[in-house]
Design brief:
about 210 residues, alpha+beta, 5-stranded antiparallel sheet
Amino acid sequence: MFENTRTETLFSTPLLRFRVADHEALDAELLAEGARMRALSEGVQKSNRGGWHSDGNIFDSSSPCIQRLYDTARASVFEATRHVTSKVAPGDLRLKISGWMNMNPPGGFNAPHTHPGAHWSGVYYVNQPAVEEGTSGMIEFLDPRSDLPNWRLLRAKAFRLKRKIRPEAGEIVMFPSYLVHWVYPNETDSERVTIAFNATFSKPRKEN
């Protein structure tokens, strides 16, 4: 019936997941550093509900574990960028990365939000309490396209309205900053701890 069939993916939204090697020691150091920071600051209220959100840019800290995570976040930003384009070398651009720590106690969650003004947003999972069932610890992303409800009938994966995942400790989840996302309430007795970050590229300075 058909001589040739061609399919291309239009307007796709990438979601990348990176597993950090030998993360256990880093996670322990980050938890200790987070406890120290929390003892010194009440934090701020952003999308967090019932939890603690660190103040300022966490990557301004000179703590070795924070700086190691910064290097890891930067590498993941470069890798994600190379994954979506070969026309720009990310290392040739100026890059600003700002981050913060989230501690969600039992019942704590993050309301739906985006990160305006950035290119990439990422989340590093420091502590993710284990669960056998339910949505605790899950992050959910909402399709940025608005005219899709009628596609539910076809049950097509490419047009699903939501996507939720439960990352593990030592994992970085990376996505475009315009993507609406939120975090389900923590239904365990332990804190869920993450470090989120925004990465913004700009043109390099012109050499004189």
